[in-house]
Design goal:
2 domains, 33% helix, 8 helices, Immunoglobulin-like, alpha/beta, Aminopeptidase, single chain, 6-stranded mixed sheet, 383 residues, 5-stranded mixed sheet
């Protein structure tokens, strides 16, 4: 009987060991189900920003813990392994005190420590043609004593890129009375330009200052060439519903259009490049589908904050078509580093609004409202 009990105990012990090994195996499999492949670090001196990018095979499961009083930050990664070739890059930066990666159980801990106070933002990016899943961490350094370069930057004027939609062979929307969108928005843009020129801290630039065709991508490139701090695209479009009226503000979406109307309008505007600059007729509901890479989370967030202020200013002088900021995949808003918005001043498809858009009085009111919005956006430190 004693011998039998010993055998049972041994069998139970063996079962426990095997079960333990099985769960360890499962745990290791879970850990290795995702792999951290690379770590990239860059420092933009102009805006005192350090960007840290984590590259992985799959979507990263993470948790942040900040100790800003100690100028440190910790990210805990769950269920992730480190690729054999993974290395923390060498860096020569006086603001980075330490970058360290340690393993604790099933968690992988990343520690960042700075010699300077900082604020931070983070966001995830979906895979594209070049990279897989990414977690992006932006560190904004707060220097107690600004460098000479930083002082120079403070004195530099804020650049506002004013983009009059359409132009040249692309007339944009055409009203019942034959009013062309390209002419109306150029007139409003020039009025806005002249208003902003009077502001000491602002340098306005016109993306187009005459009736010429500029592709959507070229508009972005020009804004980036002048290092624009804010990009505003001005439109006076048409809607399928002739009763549609009022002003709207749009920003880029990262997750698709916020409404069917926003999706329709984005497709319509984006199609200008696809059809060689000839805008799709207002009555045609068959629109080209534009596939966009939407990865500018931080810039989109800034654009959203700025757009809400702009909506409040427009509400003072005109009915709002939408009381909230709409989002969709506008190509012209796709600059990865410039907060951007598209303003629909009014609708040419509405006969009453077409008549109003042709008047200097209404154009001046729109230009002043946009100017006031820009001034408040700057005052609140959004850009």
């Amino acid at each position: 009987m004693l011998l039998k009990n010993k055998k049972i105990k041994k069998n139970n012990l063996l079962k426990i060991i095997l079960t333990g090994l099985f769960f360890i195996s499962l745990s290791q499999e879970a850990i290795s189900s995702n792999s951290l492949n690379n770590l990239r670090v860059s420092h933009n001196v102009e805006d005192s920003k350090i960007r840290i990018v984590f590259d992985a095979d799959k979507k990263i499961n993470y948790k942040f813990k900040s100790l800003l009083k100690k100028n440190s930050l910790k990210i805990s990664f769950r269920d992730i392994n480190i690729k054999k070739s993974f290395k923390i890059p060498k860096f020569n930066n006086k603001y980075i005190k330490n970058l360290k990666l340690t393993r604790k159980g099933s968690s992988l801990n990343f520690n960042f420590k700075s010699n300077s106070e900082f604020k931070y933002k983070y966001f995830s990016l979906e895979p594209n043609n070049k990279y897989g899943h990414r977690l992006v961490l932006d560190i904004y350094l707060v220097n107690k004593k600004p460098s000479t370069y930083a002082k120079k930057i403070k004195k530099t004027k804020i650049v506002i890129a004013i983009d009059a939609g359409h132009g040249g062979k692309d007339p944009g929307a055409v009203g019942k009375r034959g009013t062309k969108e390209k002419d109306i928005v150029l007139s409003i843009s020039k009025k806005l330009y002249n208003l902003l020129r009077k502001e000491k801290k602002i340098k306005p630039i016109l993306i187009r200052n005459s009736d010429k065709y500029i592709s959507l991508r070229q508009r972005i490139e020009k804004a980036r060439k002048y290092k624009a701090d804010l990009f505003i695209s001005i439109h006076a479009d048409a809607a399928r519903n002739r009763k549609a009226k009022g002003s709207s503000v749009y920003v880029l979406s990262q997750h698709g259009a916020s409404s069917e109307a926003a999706k329709w309008l984005a497709n319509k505007e984006n199609s200008a490049d696809l059809v060689g600059g000839i805008s799709i007729d207002n009555k045609d509901n068959t629109l080209a589908q534009v596939i966009l890479d939407m990865s500018q989370s931080a810039t989109i967030e800034t654009s959203l904050k700025a757009s809400r202020i702009m909506l409040r200013k427009l509400k003072k002088i005109n009915t709002l078509h939408s009381s909230r900021t709409e989002q969709a995949g506008f190509v012209v808003l796709k600059s990865p580093d410039i907060p951007s918005m598209l303003i629909e001043t009014a609708y040419l498809s509405n006969p009453k609004e077409e008549k109003k858009l042709k008047t200097n009085k209404f154009q001046n009111r729109i230009a002043k409202a946009i100017r006031d919005g820009i001034l408040e956006i700057i005052k609140k430190g959004i850009i």
